[in-house]
Amino acid sequence: MLEAYEKSVRELNAEITSLGIKIEQAIDKTWKALETMDVKLAEEVYRGDDEIDVMVKECMRKDLTISMMQSPVAADWRSLMATLKILSDLERIADHCADISHYVMHLEHANHHLPIPQGLKEMYGVMSSMVSDVLDFYKGKESSQAELMRDKDDIVDMAFNHLMEEISREITSDPEHSRDYISFVLIVKYIERMADHANNIAEWVIYRDKNELNI
């Protein structure tokens, strides 16, 4: 029974690793689509969200099956519950990639060729590094550093506030393109939310490993 349980946990972790790779690829493609206003690439990310959703649901099903069919000890229960929460946050990160891609398509079809707000690339880069870090934390690599995610999240929050101010000024000075600027507002908000989800994952990793919960 113990061997079957451990085998099921290994299989689940392997599937979550594959899911993480897919999400990192989606994040990378989303930025490339945004930076170059590549509609074809944006459509690829948008369509690919369905595949990620299926992977998440399958991982959740396996996680719940392990919980019901086996007799895990307290630490195992903690890990299984944390995994379920982590999967939910990963799904939302992928959803926001699709959301951003939707607005990339809108901006390109508007054909106004507005420049990407200054500072957006740096904000996206910090968020992307947060997701990569938490996926490593989940796999047990340097999980003791998970607490430092809050610092990166603060950097993203500061960038968010700066970009909101900048975009507000652009809307005031160029009201003709206000709809396009509102699309950038939503994109910036999605990036900020992705960072929040990455920070949540780090908190769940800490809970799994140390039984400390700050969510």
From TrEMBL:
Residues 18-103, 120-205 form the PhoU domain. Its main location: cytoplasm. Pfam families: PhoU (PF01895). One of its GO terms (cellular component) is cytoplasm. It comes from the Bacteria. Homodimer. This is Phosphate-specific transport system accessory protein PhoU. The lineage of its organism: Bacteria, Bacillati, Bacillota, Negativicutes, Veillonellales.
